[in-house]
Amino acid sequence: MDIDNLILCPICGNIPVNERDDFLNELKFKAKYFKKGEWIAQQGDIVKALYILLKGSVKAEMISDAGTVLNIETINAPNPLAPAFLFAENNHFPVDVVALEDCEIIVISKESIMKQLACNEMFLQGFMKFNSNRAHFLSERLKFLSTKTIKGKLAKYILARTENMDFSLDMSQTALAEYFGVARPSLSRSLSEMIDDEIITLKGKNGKVLNFTKLRRLVTNG
Q1: Is the pLDDT of residue 67 over 90?
Q2: Mind listing the pLDDT tens digit for each residue in 14-52?
Q3: Least enclosed by CB within 10 Å: which of 49, 98, 112, 130?
Q4: Alpha-carbon gap, residue 173 to 189, rounded angstroms
């Protein structure tokens, strides 16, 4: 494990070059390794330390009220996992975290993090900035998930990826269904109806918007 990669993590990126060796030497941590498909954390597990993904990628997911798997996001290395919950009163993982490939993770003790937050201003700034950005991301994700219809979700997703009338779906329909928290056949049917209604065209993952007005209307009206 190359601990030096930790400096590439957003919460550590502000630390001056001449202070990085001392920062790494002062951390109390242990390394953990996970194979593809293994659980790294389950929803409800207590967050006792700071988990930082140094290598690989993971998915954060939960089960919706309808019983479908809801893919919250994919996290790539190097990035922390649920850092804000380390100091929360309800300090439990809010989601399941599953390895999408072989992963390397370092687990830094809460005491070690508290020490760095107290004495290292640049680390404190990085930690606070990351958690603030996460709060914004989760707010936007909640707005997306609150869109009631599948077509509305698709319209919002497509609009965010459209440039000069063209767009590209950056995941498979199966993964997209998990991201939306819906059944794949329902997603496929909604896409087909949007194509039949001449709102979009789609070939593979690449498509074109034919009617922006109707597409935008779907966001609010479904």
Answers
A1: no
A2: 899 999 988 988 889 999 999 999 999 999 999 999 999
A3: 112
A4: 11
Pairing of strands 39-41, 69-76: unpaired
| CA within 13 Å, CB half, 217 | 6
Q: Mean pLDDT for the chain?
A: 91
For 124, counting Cβ atoms within 10 Å of its Cβ (0-12 exposed, 13-18 middle, 19+ buried), the class is: middle
Q: Residue 148's pLDDT band (boundaries 50, 70, 90)?
A: confident
Q: How far apart are CA 136 and CA 3, in angstroms?
A: 29
Q: Which two tokens stand for residue 213?
A: 């007005």
- CA separation for the pair 81, 53 (Å, rounded): 7
Alpha-carbon distance of 129 to 136, in angstroms, equals: 11
User: Got the DSSP string for the chain?
Assistant: --GGGGGGSTTTTTS-GGGHHHHHHH--EEEEEE-TT-EEE-TT-B--EEEEEEESEEEEEEE-TTS-EEEEEEEESSEEESGGGGG-SS-B-SSEEEESS-EEEEEEEHHHHHHHHHH-HHHHHHHHHHHHHHHHHHHHHHHHHH--SHHHHHHHHHHTTEETTEEE--S-HHHHHHHHTS-HHHHHHHHHHHHHTTSEEEETTEEEES-HHHHHHHHHH-
pLDDT range class, residue 222, cuts 50, 70, 90: low
Distance CA 117, CA 110 (A): 10
